[in-house]
Amino acid sequence: MLLPGDVDPQIQGTKQAPSGVGHTEIRRITHRLTLAGADPCLCRTAWQAWRVTDQQDVYIHGHHDSVLRSHRWRTIHNSAAYLIPHLRPDQQLLDVGCGPGTITIDLAQMVASGNVVGIDNEPMPLEQARADAQRQGAGNVSFSMGDVYQLNYPDGTFDVVHAHQVLQHLTEPVAALREMRRVCKPDGYVAARDADFAAMAWYPPQDRLDRWLDLYRCVAYSNRTEPDAGRRLLSWARAAGFEDITCSATAWCFATPEERAWWGGLWVERVTSSALAGQALDRHLATREDLEDIADGWRRWAEQDDGWFTVLNAEVLCRG
Ligand SMILES: C[S@@+](CC[C@H](N)C(=O)[O-])C[C@H]1O[C@@H](n2cnc3c(N)ncnc32)[C@H](O)[C@@H]1O
Prior knowledge:
The structure is a single chain. The chain is α/β, with parallel strands linked by helices and 320 residues long. Helix content is 41%, strand content 19%. It contains 12 helices and 8 strands. The longest helix has 17 residues, at 257-273. The radius of gyration is 20 Å and the shape is globular.
């Protein structure tokens, strides 16, 4: 039996770590989880989970209602403000991995005489996006199935190609950026924004939230994706061939009683009922009791008058 920190020789050498993620990092996280009381075979399990997801990308969150509720809160102002100064009324925009499309519809309002297409590789959020667009009378936006790795458009079709919180979920973020660059006009913009999980911060200290973060990152790594995507966006954009890249960072902050109840309540549900929970359980990265305990940590955090949480998001605006 392998001990935490050991690399299964059957697995070693057969995997490519997501860019920037070393074996040391995987060991560090899994070791911390073990110290926190997780399965002592966790490390082996994480590596095996990595092998399980060999063939195709696995979207960590899935499309449980608690996930889509969280995504529907997003607007152009709280999630894509860095792009607003570059929008013109007649532009053609592509929003990849648009999910339930609230940002996409906002983008369409900004380019009133232009057109916006939202694509996602899952049909369920697109149904919500279409219904929402119809409700709001947004006539210049459409939604269709599509894969960011193989966009169904000729070279140079769009003025702006946008992705919000998508690259962190891909095993090949650089390939995705190259494909986004291909369908963007030479003088257009490719814009991406992603959170950086290791840079999330909260108060008061709460060890069950520490375990939540470790578990989330471990599940993401077992999907061969990068949870600390934000800090890597610049390097990914450079690797995709962009020469003119503007970087920025903005944060979501949850601190009022209403914000804490919403954010904490979402995570209570997400950690127990979404695809994240299923992946953690299936790969023996957590037990049902662990997940309930982490959910209690979120409840406890949300109840505290001093409770404060920030999500750091990095942004890149790429040309050339
Ligand atoms: C975190 S959600 C972000 C949704 C939306 N952009 C937002 O911020 O509200 C990521 C979305 O990317 C989609 N996705 C994942 N892999 C994809 C791929 N290869 N091609 C297109 N969409 C993908 C998922 O289905 C999911 O809806």
